Amino acid sequence: MVAATGRLAGKVVLISGGGSGMGRASALLFAEEGASVGIVDIDGDAAQATARDVTSAGGRAAVAVADVSQENQVRSAVSSISSELGAVTTLFNHAGTIIVKPFLDLTVQEWDWLHGINVRSMFLMTRAVLPQMLANGEGSIICTSSISAVAATPNEVLYDTTKGACHMFARAIAVEYRDRGIRCNAICPGFIRTPHGLHEIEALGEHGVDTSSSALAEQQGRIGEPEDVARAALFLASDDSRFVNGHHLFVDNGFTAV
Ligand SMILES: NC(=O)c1ccc[n+]([C@@H]2O[C@H](COP(=O)([O-])OP(=O)(O)OC[C@H]3O[C@@H](n4cnc5c(N)ncnc54)[C@H](O)[C@@H]3O)[C@@H](O)[C@H]2O)c1
To answer: Which residue range forms the structural domain that includes residue 125?
Structure first.
């Protein structure tokens, strides 16, 4: 049941990658807290399934199918979501993916492709949404970074580099726009039980990195659940974090604290 007085009542949240994993968990939680939720995803069926679950729980949702690395698709997705739900107050730049490979096997095409999805997407989505926030005099942007922005893993030079860029993107936007009411923070998950996270664990294992349950237990206690991250993202999306800006919020049960 949707709370009219929830922590996100009156907010219009746009979530990229809301069809699955942490993006989906956030869409459901944010809607429960009163937000209207716009889902932008390359997987239309998954995005529609999230939207159906939001609306059948009494919430409000809209979907736009887009590849977030593509300028025109992002532009039209943002415009269709905001004409359906209203001006976007909160942007969750979450969509992203991974390539796990030895550094010397990487191609230039792979390098550019992953940077397009993980980093250029932040530029394109934020550039498309920010004018609406500036017109409202406030807005909150959350960028999904990772423990990989600060803790390197063998076979992840490319992925780690993209997440390092997301890390700094969030901080730089915060510094440039804080005087105009904009907050921008990064959320940095540890290993989380999503298709992305499970694929990463398997792929690293195939390359000889110890990603066994016992190794994971030593690093972060247990695998994280999408809801663990959604709850932290809710804090950054809500006015509870009104003086938190340019922050890197690690959701990793101490993985990076060791
Ligand atoms: N799962 C983890 O362990 C983990 C840890 C740290 C950071 N992350 C970050 O989380 C994000 C992945 O999310 P998840 O773990 O919830 O995974 P997920 O695979 O469950 O969901 C990713 C979603 O993004 C969408 N997507 C992928 N490429 C897209 C594109 N080009 N355009 C639009 N949508 C696209 C997918 O369709 C999917 O719905 C990435 O940014 C990743 O770097 C994941």
So the answer is: 12-192+225-251
